[in-house]
Amino acid sequence: MTPLPVRFAPRWFRPRSFLCGLGAGLAALSALGWRVSHLDYHPHFLRFCPEISPEGSYYPTVAEMGAIVRSKSRPDQVLVVVGGNSIFQGVGQPVAELWTRRLQELLGARYCVVNLAFRGAYASDGGAVVAEVLHRGFPRQIYVANAGSMTCMDPTGSDPYRFIFWEAYFKGLLLPFAPRTDYVHRRFYRPWTGLAPMVDVAGKAWLDRLLHFDDFWNYVTVDWFNTVPSIFHPDLPAVFAPRGRYADDEPDARGIPFEKRYQPAEFALEMQIVRGGTEPYYQRGPDGQWVLDTRTQDYFDYMDRAAMPEQLRERTLIVVSQNSPYYLDRLDAAERTREQAGYRDSVTSWRDAGYQAITYPADLSVDDYADRTHLTATGGRKLAASVAAEVRQMAGQLGYLESVPGRP
Predict the structure, then answer these.
(1) Cα–Cα dist 22/346, whole Å
(2) How confident is the model at residue 402 (pLDDT cuts 50, 70, 90)?
(3) pLDDT mean over 244-267
């Protein structure tokens, strides 16, 4: 007897049909993903509120943020991309009082302001990446971000938001820049730590370059339904609600009682943080003046120069943010002098590296702060006025205010 052939699959399964269907499905996904990557599905966007940011388990793509910018800015406008951390995102300011809305009002129709700041982000995070990716389409461009005293950029951004840099880097969307590439290879391509993590990151970026699955799924998540729980909406049925349904409900810090904004129980810790901003980096000189450690200067200079190509640095404004006077006024005389030296030397360091840099306006008061670092709506208005003046000056120096074809 001839033995019957052994079947390893049901009769209805046809490998060729399966592979053809799989290929057709992937092709359809790629086409849909490419299509939505060019759509702005955040029509009322003012900033990344928690439901549409990594803290809410939502990860915006470079194309998604680029589509937001393209939908808002015209080619004849000066594009002002705002990055940085929660201070520039506008924590403590409701949408109606958001400082970047005031900045847009002050600058007028010749400019377009787009706020791409994230909570806890570096100046080199999302907004900086998107600004660089869009540099050809928007040559009249200024990038504005904040940084704390005695802080610098990391050329690849910070851990929570580094996925944005990797996407742009491995998709070839960034300008070629040898110092940054050298930094990436020295920090992340280390044989003794293994290459597996970088292979995973690069492989995902290359696969997404073909299939656009991140853009497709973000579109579904915002407009149709969500399947990833977040700390804000962990329970059913809210977990399935599209992220676009949730409003930006940032509270107005001016309505929070003073004793809650400056809680006595947190005073000692906050003072420790304030002192720690400059204490590790300064020593007394022979004349009794505070002197910045040379190793710190060299490190900051190297990191800031490696973070951006020179042609982008000259159109980047770094605002060195300050702590609330409520805490600064409680430092002793020597500590206050050191704190002021930190702000002054930070601005100098950024300028030496090729950036434009300023610090906060001198008229900010305790009432202009929501807490140690964040600004209320009144503080935001003062910040907007200061930044607007600097942006106008930069635009003139960069030749952005010359006549545009088709516009008087």
Answers:
(1) 55
(2) confident
(3) 94
CA 241/CA 225 separation, integer angstroms: 5
Of the candidates 304, 357, 371, 374, the one whose C-alpha atom is nearest the C-alpha of residue 88 is 374
Within a domain: 7: no
Per-residue model confidence as pLDDT tens digits over 128-170 = 999 999 999 999 999 999 999 999 999 999 989 999 999 999 9
Q: Rg of the Cα trace of the chain?
A: 24
What tokens were used for 368? 């202009």
- Lateral strand order in the sheet of 111-115: 111-115, 78-82, 141-148, 316-321, 356-359
Range of the domain at 76: 25-397
Check: pTM over 0.85? Answer yes or no.
Answer: yes
CA 243 distance to own-chain centroid: 20
Residue type, 211: L
Is residue 180 in a domain? yes
**Domain total of the chain:** 1
| Residue 115 · residue 101 · CB < 8 Å | no
- Type of residue numbered 277: G
Helices and strands, number each (H, E), in the chain: 16, 7
- The pair of three-digit structure tokens given for residue 151, joined into one six-digit string: 């802080």
Rounded CA-CA distance 387/358 in Å is 9
Within 10 Å of residue 233's Cβ, how many Cβ atoms? 21
With the C-alpha atoms ordered 277, 186, 312, 118, is the resulting torsion angle positive or negative? Answer: negative
pLDDT tens-digit readout, 307-363:
999 999 999 999 999 999 999 999 999 999 999 999 999 999 999 999 999 999 999
* Mean pLDDT, rounded, for 287-306: 94
Please write the tens of the pLDDT for every residue from 373-382: 999 999 999 9
| Size of the chain, expressed as the number of residues it contains | 408
Cα 174 to its chain centre, rounded Å, is 16
Q: Which long-range contacts (CB under 8 A, 24 or more apart) does 347-350 make?
A: 347/320, 349/152, 349/297, 349/300, 349/301, 349/304, 350/147, 350/304, 350/318, 350/320
Domain-embedded: residue 308: yes
Peptide bond into 237 cis (omega under 30): yes
- Better-scored residue on pLDDT, 48 or 13: 48
In a domain, 96, yes or no: yes
